[in-house]
Specification:
- The chain has about 70 residues and is of the alpha+beta class.
- It has 2 helices and 3 strands.
- A 3-stranded antiparallel beta sheet has the order 1-3-2, covered by helices on one side.
- It is elongated and about 35 Å long.
Length: about 70
């Protein structure tokens, strides 16, 4: 599962630490504020047996086919 985390610049390090403690790997860091916000991508590998969680993550992340395909 990949999530983009956008946060105020003053909370950037705290949010990274929280996600790291929850088992996420941090990628694609943008620590320099743009309009007062910084961001990073938090990645966590899901077990293959966790199909329901994967479907929920896809639905929330918009990772589905073209609109007409379903």
């Amino acid at each position: 599962m990949r999530i983009r985390v956008t946060t105020r610049a003053d909370l950037y390090e705290k949010r990274k630490q929280e996600h790291t403690e929850r088992g996420y790997r941090i990628e694609d860091e943008c620590p320099i504020p743009a309009n007062g916000f910084c961001s990073f991508v938090a990645v966590r590998e899901l077990p293959a047996s966790d199909g329901l969680s994967e479907l929920v993550a896809q639905a929330l992340g918009g990772s589905h086919g073209a609109r007409g395909d379903w």
